[in-house]
User: What shape does this take?
Amino acid sequence: MQNKIKAIIFLQGAVFIYSLTTVISKFVSNYRFLSKEFILLYLLDFAVLGVYAILWQQLLKRFELSIAYANKAMTLLWSLLWSALIFREEVTLVKVLGVLMVIAGTIVLNSRSGDKENGEVGGDDL
Assistant: This one.
């Protein structure tokens, strides 16, 4: 059970990192195309995506593709938080309800997920 929790935290950490690309992309859009700021932020976005890609490959060793991919939907939660905290965008009841439905679905999927080989998610090498 502890390995499963550890693996899910690792998965959600990767999703958190992936969500940062939405923030960086929003900042990039504020600068003139190919300006110094545009290029620097674009490179930062590319670097974050590179880190995420490495983490994603490690996650696919631990989770079925359908489970791992369904957890990417949690990016909606992080994006909603970033939009409110950083960009001061409006958070509506409909948006909150939608994110809560995604969270509920992710919890259901994670509670039924298992390791590809032995029925237990995660390993000691996470």
Q: What stands out?
A: The chain is about 75% helix and 0% strand. The chain has one domain: 2-112. Residues 2-28 form the longest helix (27 residues).
